[in-house]
Specification:
The complex is a heterodimer of chains A (409) and B (468).
Chain A: H1 2-13, H2 15-37, H3 41-47, H4 68-91, H5 95-113, H6 122-136, H7 140-158, H8 162-165, H9 168-173, H10 178-198, H11 204-224, H12 227-252, H13 267-280, H14 292-300, E1 309-319, E2 322-326, H15 342-356, E3 362-373, E4 380-385
Antiparallel strand pairs in A: 1-2, 1-3, 3-4
Helix pairs in contact in A: 1-2, 2-4, 2-5, 2-6, 2-12, 3-4, 4-5, 5-6, 6-7, 7-10, 7-12, 7-13, 10-11, 11-12, 13-14
Chain B: H1 10-29, H2 38-45, E1 92-99, E2 109-115, E3 118-123, E4 127-131, E5 137-142, E6 156-157, E7 161-165, E8 170-175, E9 181-186, E10 196-198, E11 201-207, E12 212-218, E13 230-231, E14 238-241, E15 247-252, E16 255-260, E17 265-271, E18 276-283, E19 286-291, E20 295-300, E21 306-312, E22 322-324, E23 329-333, E24 339-343, E25 349-353, E26 364-368, H3 371-376, E27 386-392, E28 396-400, E29 407-412, E30 416-417, E31 422-424, E32 427-433, E33 439-446, H4 447-467
Antiparallel strand pairs in B: 1-33, 2-3, 3-4, 4-5, 6-7, 7-8, 8-9, 10-11, 11-12, 12-13, 14-15, 15-16, 16-17, 18-19, 19-20, 20-21, 22-23, 23-24, 24-25, 26-27, 27-28, 28-29, 30-32, 31-32, 32-33
């Protein structure tokens, strides 16, 4: 409990941290709103048959042991608790109460978030990671500043790919000529990577240049329609601003201050930052696709905002007297980063098997998929399966099955 | 924490400058689009290697090279000569007809490949349909959806497989027996001329940077040959097998080329004054071509395609020339259906027959008749009964003597033939289309054979009836 009390003390003594707590609670409410707007997304995925596992789980069926009723309760509690926490942290002096409410809301949210990989997003990652650090990691002001700067810089880094720099993302969202879109894409990378780092400087010229650039960048994103990303970005900038003003005030009042507690340790925050940056740099480490390290780090890496991979899938529906080359439509809309996700394709094909099973002539689906990352020189055969509808085929043995086998399984 | 500490120390500034440099480097290294070169964009956005991984990636084991079983105009020399060369009787009768049960609504057949296993039909739809010689659906295979205005290339056949070529550059090896996929390869380039089988490969000519590039796909496993020959020939060319084992004769626009397939080099090319109609017909060391300007030319392969003779026709040709062995005749149908026969040696017009032809089949073919008919029509024994056959009238095919162009027989069939007939088990099997637009398979048999079959059939029914 001392550990928790120390965390609460840290928040109590900093006005900017209290504001950040309220902002984080509001981000959670916004996140809930977007889930709700998509038809109560976490509950919808739970109701569906097969979950999509996070890459660190071999199997995630066990995640479904929580009854749907409890998950529904957690889902609505998440919104209510966060709303109350936001009001308390923003308008009252009951900081400890607000803190505990936020802690409860955070655990409700994280249980829902980890139910299915399809719920993951960069914004969700930002909100939950920042909330975790805010609630449980000491030396909060420093950690928060570094984390926010890291998120901006990492988002810029993930955009240093031909997909993003082609400007296609901008052209998909706003009607601009291709050359302008390319420049927007390049500017977006420069602003996020360089502008964010200037937020670490105490020299006002650097700080304000970076802050204003990032502010305008996030306003543009909001104009384009990236509600959650831009709101979280603007909220984070608001906190940085308050924190900077607070620090300057503290510096002015330095001689009057007395320390009743020692400066909190930055070790845990440093470890978190190191983990975060190692994960962001995985695309540059050339790790094997199947390696465990890559699988674990992938969970901590930001999703690329424009699809980084090129994929090519060919599927054949086999009937008694005919074969048809078909396109397998995704079961629901997905973000570009998920387009080439092998697991998603696996789920789509299994769903297609169930759909076609009602046709008495239908036998099975055959499918093969190739993936190439833009940083790779060669392509990767994700799978090639002649009998995809076989009940013996699971995601785990997908790689072991070869087309040329007489009996696939 | 004094006010001075807000000033950036020189080493932090240096670090910041280095960091900014790294960001700019990342921007440039990740952004080939800063260069506006279209080719660079294309090559970055789509890798060639992506599409050349076959399905299955490791290839099928146990595949073997088998003989090609279908040639347009009977052989790869495009001679139009009955490959069996056995003597036949003139009294053919339509013994059986079978409607084609492809089971697809609005399926327009544009290409027919055929062999003893059945017919393989393609057109503007993405379906490849296999029907038996009796018109029953054996299987059908739907390839990827196609852009409007494109169509599947004619299917290529060998003993085991049928090769389907999609206009987008996807090539599929399909097992003939059950229609299952053996392999799939995507060259991701549109073919610029009709693909064909050559030795162990399916050859897909595609557009290269300056010349045509020939993608050689191994028939056994669909793997692309490492060597991609670059042949400087105009798109839309047609291929015939030349003399020897390694020469191909290509015709495109007004040019004839001889291609050495060992070195993949053009040995010679000959430019004619008029565009060529259809593929070349190769007779030993000679090449016969018809031109749109109503001429037939004979070129000598041994003299780099030098024109030996040319003859002018009354009308433009409707198809390629056909050679009639022993009789030394070159025949072809002209627009409207008239037949012209030319002396192969002298290049003089021997005769024309004023027939009409309303069917889409505009090729003539050469067939040997039996000794009985040689005497009956006073044909020279030396010529061993070789005669000229052609689609004629509305739904008929006609036989002519080679010397004088005398009509021997006109045989009625129920549908207009769409392609040269398939010779199978003493039958000529025609794939045709009725006036109502339905597809029909006609089995033509000699009268004597029909009698034999009927006798056999009655002999089989009598014992079974006596049992009852």
């Amino acid at each position: 409990m001392d550990y928790i009390r120390a965390n609460i003390w840290e928040i109590k003594k900093s006005g900017s941290l209290r504001t950040l707590g309220a902002l984080l609670a509001l981000f959670h409410i916004l996140n809930f709103y977007l889930w709700w707007d998509d038809g109560n997304l976490p509950l919808k995925f739970v109701m569906q048959g097969q979950p999509m596992c996070w890459s660190w789980f071999e199997n995630c069926e066990w995640m479904r042991i929580i009854p749907a009723g409890i998950l529904t309760f957690l889902y609505y509690s998440y919104a209510v608790v966060m709303a109350v926490a936001a009001v308390i942290l923003l308008l009252t002096e009951f900081i400890a109460f607000g803190y505990y409410l936020m802690l409860v809301g955070f655990f409700c949210g994280i249980v829902l978030y980890f139910q299915d990989l399809r719920l993951s997003s960069n914004e969700g990652y930002f909100i939950f990671f920042l909330s975790f650090s805010y609630l449980l990691v000491p030396s909060k002001n420093r950690v928060m500043r570094w984390l926010i700067v890291s998120f901006f810089a990492a988002r810029g880094l993930s955009q240093a790919s031909p997909d993003w720099l082609s400007g296609n993302w901008y052209r998909e969202h706003i009607n601009v000529p291709i050359k302008l879109a390319e420049w927007f894409a390049a500017l977006s990378l420069l602003v996020q990577m360089i502008g964010s780092v200037t937020l670490l400087f105490r020299d006002a010229r650097y700080f304000w240049s970076g802050w204003i650039l990032l502010f305008f960048f996030e306003c543009t994103q909001l104009y384009i329609g990236e509600l959650l990303a831009a709101s979280t970005g603007l909220g984070a900038l608001l906190y940085i601003l308050f924190e900077d003003l607070e620090r300057r005030k503290q510096e002015r009042e330095y001689i009057y201050q007395s320390f009743i507690r020692p400066e909190p340790s930055f070790v845990l925050g440093g470890i978190l930052l190191a983990l975060f940056w190692t994960a962001q740099l995985t695309p540059f480490l050339n790790l094997e696709r199947t390696s465990t390290v890559k699988r674990i780090l992938d969970v901590w890496a930001l999703h690329p905002e424009a699809a980084q991979e090129e994929c090519d899938q060919r599927t054949f529906a086999i009937y008694k007297k005919r074969v048809e080359q078909i396109e397998v439509e995704p079961q629901m809309a997905r973000q570009p980063a998920m387009l080439c996700n092998i697991y998603m394709r696996f789920l789509d094909l299994k769903a297609m098997c169930s759909q076609l099973a009602s046709d008495p002539d239908f036998i099975t689906l055959s499918s093969a998929m190739d993936i190439r990352s833009f940083r790779d020189n060669s392509i990767f055969r994700a799978f090639e399966v002649r009998d995809f509808c076989s009940p013996a085929l699971t995601f785990k043995n997908l790689n072991e099955v070869k087309w040329t086998m007489t009996q696939d399984m | 924490m004094d006010y001075d500490s807000r000033h950036v120390k020189w080493y932090w500034l240096l670090l910041f400058i280095v960091y900014c440099g790294a960001v700019v480097y990342l921007l440039f290294s990740g952004n080939p689009y800063l260069y506006s070169d279209q080719e660079l964009r294309a090559s970055m956005s789509r890798s060639d290697s992506l599409d050349l991984l076959t399905i299955p990636a490791q290839g099928m084991s146990g595949g073997k090279i088998t003989a090609q079983t279908h040639f347009y105009r009977f052989d790869f020399q495009r001679s139009g000569v009955d490959p069996l060369g056995a003597p036949r009787y003139k009294d053919y009768v339509e013994y059986q007809t079978f409607p084609v049960q492809h089971g697809l609504e609005g399926f327009e057949i544009e290409n027919i490949a055929q062999d003893s296993s059945g017919f393989y039909l393609t057109g503007a739809s993405p379906w490849l349909v296999s029907v038996s010689l009796e018109g029953e659906l054996r299987w059908k295979f739907k390839l990827a959806d196609m852009k409007p205005g494109t169509k599947l290339w004619p299917a290529l056949l060998d003993e085991d497989s049928v090769y389907a070529i999609h206009p987008s550059g996807e090539i599929l090896g399909i097992r003939k027996s059950d229609g299952s996929l053996r392999w799939l390869t995507n060259v991701d380039k549109e073919a610029i001329a009709e693909p064909f089988i050559w030795q162990d490969h399916v050859v897909i000519p595609v557009k290269g940077k300056r010349t045509s590039e020939w993608m050689l796909i191994r028939r056994t496993d669909g793997k692309l040959n490492e060597k991609v020959p670059k042949i400087d020939v105009k798109p839309g060319f047609m291929v015939s097998k030349g003399p020897g084992k390694k020469t191909l004769i290509l015709t495109a626009e007004n040019k004839v080329y001889a291609l050495d397939t060992e070195r993949w080099k053009i040995e010679w090319s000959q430019t004619l004054t008029e565009p060529i109609k259809g593929p070349a017909t190769v007779v030993e060391n000679d090449i016969l071509v018809a031109t749109l300007g109503a001429k037939v030319l004979k070129l000598d392969v041994n003299r780099k395609g030098k024109v030996e003779w040319e003859v002018e026709l009354e009308k433009s040709p409707a198809g390629s020339p056909t050679y009639t062995p022993m009789a030394n005749r070159v025949t072809l149908q002209m627009l409207g259906g008239e037949i012209a026969a030319i002396d192969f040696k002298t290049g003089k017009l021997a005769w024309t027959y004023n027939s009409t032809n309303k069917s889409p089949l505009t090729d003539t073919w050469s067939v040997r008749l039996s000794g009985k008919h040689i005497e009956e029509y006073k044909m020279d024994w030396l010529h061993k009964g070789w005669t000229i056959w052609s689609a004629c009238s509305n739904r008929n095919f006609c036989m002519f003597t080679p010397n004088k162009g005398q009509l021997i027989q006109s045989v009625a069939i129920s549908a207009q033939p769409l392609t040269l007939p398939l010779q199978f088990d003493r039958r000529w099997i025609f794939f045709g289309r009725t006036p109502k637009g339905e597809y029909l398979i006609s089995h033509m048999l000699e009268n004597a054979e029909i009698k034999k079959l009927k006798t056999q059939a009655s002999a089989e029914t009598v014992p079974s009836g006596s049992k009852n």
